[in-house]
Write a structure and sequence with these properties.
The chain is of the alpha+beta class and 69 residues long. Helix content is 20%, strand content 28%. Strands 1, 2, 3 and 4 form a 4-stranded antiparallel beta sheet that branches.
């Protein structure tokens, strides 16, 4: 079987202090990690899939950009 060619991906850009997070684990583990992150940080609503075994979210840790002054 021949591997199919990889699709072209657009370069990602990131905002200072914003983390894109993917969590994988059992449904209970993913839920526990999401609970802690949502309690400690400003986070987007997680997009869960695979029956709750994976989730994507964005996390705001505050502006980490260097101060130009």
């Amino acid at each position: 079987m021949t591997a199919r060619p990889r699709r072209e991906r657009t370069a990602r850009t990131y905002l200072p202090g914003i983390a894109d997070i993917r969590i994988c684990g059992t449904e209970e583990t993913v839920k526990a990690v999401l609970d802690v992150l949502e309690r400690e940080f400003i986070a987007t609503t997680a997009r869960e899939y695979d029956g709750g075994q994976r989730a994507y979210l964005q996390l705001d840790t505050g502006n980490t950009a260097p101060d130009p002054d």
